[in-house]
Automatic annotation (TrEMBL):
<dbReference type="GO" id="GO:0043190">
    <property type="term" value="C:ATP-binding cassette (ABC) transporter complex"/>
</dbReference>
<dbReference type="InterPro" id="IPR043429">
    <property type="entry name" value="ArtM/GltK/GlnP/TcyL/YhdX-like"/>
</dbReference>
<keyword id="KW-1003">Cell membrane</keyword>
<dbReference type="Pfam" id="PF00528">
    <property type="entry name" value="BPD_transp_1"/>
</dbReference>
<dbReference type="GO" id="GO:0015184">
    <property type="term" value="F:L-cystine transmembrane transporter activity"/>
</dbReference>
<keyword id="KW-0813">Transport</keyword>
<dbReference type="InterPro" id="IPR010065">
    <property type="entry name" value="AA_ABC_transptr_permease_3TM"/>
</dbReference>
<keyword id="KW-0029">Amino-acid transport</keyword>
<dbReference type="InterPro" id="IPR000515">
    <property type="entry name" value="MetI-like"/>
</dbReference>
<keyword id="KW-1133">Transmembrane helix</keyword>
<dbReference type="InterPro" id="IPR035906">
    <property type="entry name" value="MetI-like_sf"/>
</dbReference>
<feature type="transmembrane region" description="Helical">
    <location>
        <begin position="59"/>
        <end position="80"/>
    </location>
</feature>
<feature type="domain" description="ABC transmembrane type-1">
    <location>
        <begin position="21"/>
        <end position="209"/>
    </location>
</feature>
<keyword id="KW-0472">Membrane</keyword>
<protein>
    <submittedName>
        <fullName>Amino acid ABC transporter permease</fullName>
    </submittedName>
</protein>
<keyword id="KW-0812">Transmembrane</keyword>
<comment type="similarity">
    <text>Belongs to the binding-protein-dependent transport system permease family.</text>
</comment>
Amino acid sequence: MDDRKIQIFIDSLLPLLQAGVAFTIPLTLISFVLGLTLAVLTAIARLSGWSVLRLTARLYVWIIRGTPLLVQLFIIFYGLPAVGVTLEPFPAAVIGFTLSVGAYGSEIIRAAILSIDEGQWESAYSLGMTRIQALRHIILPQAARVSVPSLGNSFISLVKDTSLAAMVTYSEMFRKAQEITATTYEPLLVYSEAGLIYLLFSTVLSALQNHLEKRFDRFTAKS
């Protein structure tokens, strides 16, 4: 690597890290929290005794899981203005990623709820709890522990998926890499540098996920 490329690498590092911390991470956190909330509601709707709720939830999951995330983002950002709905890049990206996390996460949570022994429900009912109370106080806390590994993987995937927000002009890390490439004409170098930063983020999050899983395992063992 010649001196010019080394200098480009050094000069690009701070702007890319700043974009990652200031834009990529907040987008990930907000989308995941909202998506997880939507996932819980969707999972409960899928298990509801009301057919309208079940069908609505199934339709939502079917559409989101059956179409590419990039297409969804394009519809939200570039398509909706055709019907008078214009969104800024950040809310458009949040909506797109939230819907995606909600759909995929709902299947994880639904499977976790179904994995809880039926006797847990019966025990809750014997204590006079309603179905909602049993779900809130008995079933969901146990399902949450079961869901941690899969939801952790979803969160790490979301960090990488946020690079798609560059396609709707949101200034996250990959968008910054595109801007730097446009002025330096070094796509291999700059995109590889961005990839290394994504790898760093994913590695740190994986370590945190492993720590969290071990803590839940100890808690489960004691209980």
